[in-house]
Amino acid sequence: MDRLRIAGGAALDGEIPIGGAKNAALPLMAASLLTAEPLELTNVPRLRDIATLIRVLEQHGVEVESGAGTLRLTAADIPNTMAPYDLVRQMRASVLVLGPLVARFGNAAVSLPGGCAIGSRPIDLHLMALEQLGAEISLGRGYIHAEAPPGGLVGNRIIFPKVSVGASENAIMAAALARGTTAIENAALEPEVADLAHCLNAMGARIEGIGSERLVIEGVDELHGAQHRVVADRIEAGTYAMAAAITGGSVTLQNVGEDLFGAAAAALREAGVALEPNGAGIRVSCADGDLTGVDVITDPFPGFPTDLQAQFMALMSKAGGASMITETIFENRYMHVPELKRMGANVNLHGASAMVRGVEKLYGAEVMATDLRASSSLVIAALAAEGETTINRVYHLDRGYERLVEKLTGCGARVERIAGS
Ligand code: EPZ
Fold this sequence. Notes:
alpha/beta, four-stranded mixed beta sheet, 14 helices, 24 strands, elongated, binds ligand EPZ
């Protein structure tokens, strides 16, 4: 397994191009199942998760043509509506094929995704939404079997008891082809959900209220092909913003606007990080020693994103004063804590909260990546640590960060990837 070797201490200085959002590209790719015509996506990041979903879609019968940052997906002939365990377990977002398959073909069998490092990750809200639209759901031998009524799914009111990005996306895609009107209440506000809805409307769907928690969807008989550019990745941007800040550097994050940052922008500014929108994107800078501790509580968008919690903890480990970080979305998203502590961070966990007291220095060490965002948290800490850090199991990083080594070394970081045994 490959690992990263990072020699800390270099202040990042330069430009970092921000790619398309993984968490937008995945539902957009699943949406290709809703039409027999080609869906052309641009600004698609080259990531392991994207490659995994391509394999899932191809085994359904979708023709996928990949180009430089582009995908052309054609679901003209779909002989197989089953998504197998060996693929779904690799990437739980594969469950996003469920809504489109049931809506267009009337049935689907999708493996239960199983949990992952950060939590049990149930999908009850996905299933509730489909049942509300008339689907019969049964569970058997590790698979979800979903069957639409003979005339297809029927529009209805769907009230989510808690915000769920994936369940909102499955519900929107299914409702787009349901007969009649669907009202979705308490829909997720993440920009990736809006990006999906905009693409579906370009495909002929009739979705109103995009960007709000109440969506009204007039079902249509069929959708057609479209071209769509994937929205920029706010989590990649936030990750590199924190890398720049912790090194006392100054970096322009290209192709991304502050509107995607939500509460993360306010938290960074409160911590002493300067964020200045400029023509090319956002300039992020922080003078050495200016970082101060800030409390954050993760929350659905536009709250502080859970996907930036681990990275923010690394940043706060070198801030003056203390920072109370509370994770409210996932039950086990502190796998990075023991690794950060091995680098000298002062972090104490109290249930869902972590008390971080800033330290003068972090020290390079041999550490282990455990999940996607925990891995990027270790990269951030390593960039500011005294000495050399080796991060093992970097395949976690490959799931969500395209060309990470190149983007960091392009700003003066001393990072190299070492091929594993
Ligand atoms: C999406 O996951 C993202 N993944 C996650 O990013 C992100 O952390 C999460 O949203 C929250 O923003 C993709 O978009 C592919 P949820 P998702 O449904 O849809 C509970 C990353 O690092 N829940 O909004 O799975 C769930 O357990 C990944 O890029 C149910 O109880 O998240 C969690 O506590 C990690 N029942 C909360 O809701 C359900 O049916 C929010 O989960 C579904 C979810």
